[in-house]
Structure formats: structure tokens, C-alpha cells
Design a protein that fits this description.
174 residues, 5-stranded antiparallel beta sheet, alpha+beta, single chain
């Protein structure tokens, strides 16, 4: 038996004595056993201590154009106007019923701006004695209809043009 020269070990990796070809790895990787993910130091994985994944760059935010902002503002204004109009019309003369009290919001005889108020309120000026559907173009025809509906009426109020023509027969609230 021969002994290797001093300082050399025939069993160390990377050195094959006697001119034998050097192997790449002791065992080739088998296709049925793929590499385990997440192992540090393996190709394709970050070294220990590094972040496991690179941060995804944020998508650039899309700026709203002037046209889009303008359209949003227009829709909002129209919606607010519709809501305010609906709420304001809830106490108009067209919602009045017999026995309701009314307040005159304007001094104009052509548009007195009558609104329904609580009868216990200091604003109550008139009481509705009758509400008659239909169109009454003259004061005489309105008065004649109110005389038939409510004998002690003092005032008439007609509204027409918005699809619900009617006549209110009113008297002073005491």
C-alpha cells in the first residue's frame, strides 16, 4: 500500500489524485424532488438578513381631469338643487289638506307663497276649509265653487300649471 505524499489528502473535495476526472456534484438533482423554496443561500433567493421580497412599485395615481371635476360638480349641484326643491315643496299649498293652517310668505297678491304651518304656531294666518281639484280661471268661478264647498270662507287661492290644478278656500286663523 502506498501512502499519499505529505500535506495532501486524497479524500478532500475538489482534488482527485491520480489524474481522475473531477465530478461536478456527488449526486445529480432528481427531477422528482425539486429544490425547496425559501432556503437562504439557494439561487433565486435573497441572502440571509435581506428582505424576502422586493417592494412592488406603487402604480402612478391617475389625476382627475378638469372635465371630470367639472362633471362631478355639475351632478352634485343638480342633486342638491333637486333635494332642496323637494324639501321646500313639502310644505307648499299643494300639500295642504282641509284643517291645515297656512302662512303667507309674500305680500304679493299674484304669488302669496302659501306654506303649511302648525296651527299652534304664531305664523298661522289662515285655515283651509276646502280643497277642490280643478282649474278656476276667474275669481267669480273660484268664489262660486268655495261657497258651495265651505259657507264661511273669506279667501280663495288657486294654483295651476304644474299638473295639479286646485282651489283652496281659506278663512282667518283666530
Amino acid at each position: 500500500m502506498t501512502t499519499p505524499p505529505q500535506g495532501q489528502n486524497p479524500f478532500t473535495q475538489g482534488h482527485q489524485p491520480y489524474g481522475q476526472p473531477q465530478a461536478q456534484a456527488p449526486y445529480p438533482p432528481h427531477a422528482a424532488y425539486p429544490q425547496q423554496p425559501g432556503r437562504p443561500g439557494q439561487p433565486g433567493f435573497p441572502p440571509p438578513g435581506a428582505a424576502p421580497y422586493a417592494p412592488v412599485p406603487a402604480q402612478p395615481r391617475r389625476k382627475l381631469s378638469f372635465k371630470a371635476i367639472k362633471n362631478i360638480v355639475i351632478v352634485a349641484v343638480v342633486a342638491i338643487a333637486a333635494i332642496v326643491g323637494y324639501i321646500a315643496s313639502q310644505d307648499d299649498a299643494n300639500t295642504a289638506k282641509v284643517g291645515d293652517c297656512m302662512h303667507r310668505g309674500s305680500t304679493s297678491d299674484t304669488n302669496p307663497d302659501l306654506e303649511v304651518v302648525d296651527c299652534g304656531s304664531s305664523k298661522a294666518q289662515y285655515v283651509v276649509l276646502a280643497k277642490v281639484k280643478g282649474s278656476y280661471s276667474t275669481e267669480l268661478s273660484a268664489s262660486t265653487k268655495c261657497e258651495a264647498a265651505a259657507k264661511d270662507f273669506q279667501y280663495t287661492y288657486t294654483e295651476s300649471g304644474d299638473g295639479s290644478d286646485f282651489l283652496l278656500c281659506l278663512k282667518d286663523h283666530k
